[in-house]
């Protein structure tokens, strides 16, 4: 999965809403207390289970006039959540965030920030429950989710506070671990934010994948789509748009060991830009062991070093 770029004007509008929230909280230091955001915005949070739909049915019974399809088919919300295996949703009519009770605790923070962003953007409210053909299109859904993801990142990483701290650190996985600890967000969201922040001018790439070593890959490994996330910084995307996730994953697999956890290796990797010129990137990979049955996840950071011809000459 690649990051979704949003319109610059929309980004400014979202930033204005996030700034208003943080200012209302007194511009807090990290980590952000997400429950304080809920209190400020007077949002209600409830948990539901797709096995026990009583909470969803109770929610539907309280929806007031305003959502045509829900009024005509009261069980539509329940059916949609169960069928799509949704992990969370926001109901503007009740200012309520509904979250799947089975969602891992580590993911609560990001998911809740995502739904909070939906609540802040008034142009999302009319589309949340798909009342029109336009609102039901996959393209529209992707657009809204991209905006909510942008806002979630800006909220839990305290807008420009993260950038100020990230740019003062070495471009390494150790720095990402430190920022994860300071801001108390997941390592995955911190890697994503780090790549996009430090990579505005510098080509940087991040990957979240299964274990790269052939002996450690899970049985359901897909060699055509080896990455859960292939994160490209703006500068990388502009200069290395022809580089594929499979080619980068193969390069990572060439230097990674078969260790069951921790650092898997590091190496200089040659990537070709859109003009056909070779460049050197410094790559490093770390494997996170998860509790069974999860197979764990490899995190990789690749940072631009320079043109290959200059590196060889040096």
Beta-strand share of residues: 15-25%
How many β-strands, per DSSP?
8
Taken in chain order, the helices and strands follow as HHEHHHEEHHHHHHEEHHEEEH
Low-confidence runs: 61-74, 129-136
User: Could you give a short account of the major beta sheet?
Assistant: 5 strands, antiparallel
* Average pLDDT number: 86
Helix content: 40-55%
Strand order of the largest sheet: 5-4-8-7-6
Shape: globular
First-last Cα distance: 36 Å
Category by helix and strand content: alpha+beta
Write a concise synopsis of the structure shown.
The protein has 314 residues and is an alpha+beta fold. The protein has helices at residues 8-24, 34-41, 54-62, 68-72, 76-84, 105-120, 122-125, 138-156, 160-166, 173-183, 187-198, 234-239, 245-255, 308-313, and strands at residues 44-48, 88-91, 96-100, 204-209, 229-232, 262-272, 278-288, 297-307.
Description of the molecule:
By secondary structure, the protein is of the alpha+beta class. It contains 14 helices and eight strands. The strands form two sheets. It has a five-stranded antiparallel beta sheet with strand order 5-4-8-7-6, with helices on both faces. The protein has a three-stranded mixed beta sheet with strand order 1-3-2, sandwiched between helices. Mean pLDDT is 86; it is low at 61-74 and 129-136.
Draw up the topology in text.
Blueprint: H1 8-24, H2 34-41, E1 44-48, H3 54-62, H4 68-72, H5 76-84, E2 88-91, E3 96-100, H6 105-120, H7 122-125, H8 138-156, H9 160-166, H10 173-183, H11 187-198, E4 204-209, E5 229-232, H12 234-239, H13 245-255, E6 262-272, E7 278-288, E8 297-307, H14 308-313
Parallel strand pairs: 1-3
Antiparallel strand pairs: 2-3, 4-5, 4-8, 6-7, 7-8
Helix pairs in contact: 1-8, 6-8, 10-11
């Amino acid at each position: 999965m690649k990051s979704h770029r949003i319109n610059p004007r929309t980004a400014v509008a979202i930033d204005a809403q996030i700034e208003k929230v943080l200012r209302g909280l007194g511009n807090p230091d990290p980590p952000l207390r997400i429950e304080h955001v809920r209190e400020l915005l007077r949002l209600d949070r409830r948990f539901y289970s797709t096995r026990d739909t009583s909470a969803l049915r109770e929610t539907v019974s309280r929806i007031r006039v305003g959502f045509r399809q829900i009024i005509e088919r009261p069980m539509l919300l329940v059916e949609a959540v169960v069928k799509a295996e949704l992990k969370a949703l926001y109901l503007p009519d009740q200012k309520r965030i509904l979250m799947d009770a089975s969602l891992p605790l580590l993911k609560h923070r990001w998911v809740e920030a995502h739904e909070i962003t939906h609540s802040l953007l008034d142009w999302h409210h009319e589309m949340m429950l798909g009342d029109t053909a336009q609102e039901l299109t996959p393209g529209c859904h992707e657009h809204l989710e991209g905006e909510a993801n942008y806002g979630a990142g800006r909220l839990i990483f305290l807008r420009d506070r993260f950038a100020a701290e990230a740019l003062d650190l070495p471009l390494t996985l150790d720095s990402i671990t430190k920022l994860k600890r300071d801001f108390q967000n997941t390592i995955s969201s911190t890697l994503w934010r780090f790549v996009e922040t430090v990579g505005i001018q510098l080509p940087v790439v991040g990957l979240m994948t299964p274990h790269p070593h052939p002996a450690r890959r899970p049985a359901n490994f897909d060699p055509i789509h080896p990455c859960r996330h292939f994160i490209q910084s703006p500068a990388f995307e502009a200069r290395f748009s022809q580089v594929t996730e499979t080619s980068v994953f193969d390069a990572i697999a060439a230097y990674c060991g078969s260790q069951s956890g921790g650092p898997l290796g590091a190496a200089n990797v040659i990537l070709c830009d859109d003009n056909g010129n070779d460049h050197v990137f410094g790559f490093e990979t770390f494997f996170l062991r998860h509790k069974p049955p999860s197979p764990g996840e490899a995190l990789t950071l690749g940072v631009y070093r320079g043109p290959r011809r200059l590196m060889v000459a040096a």
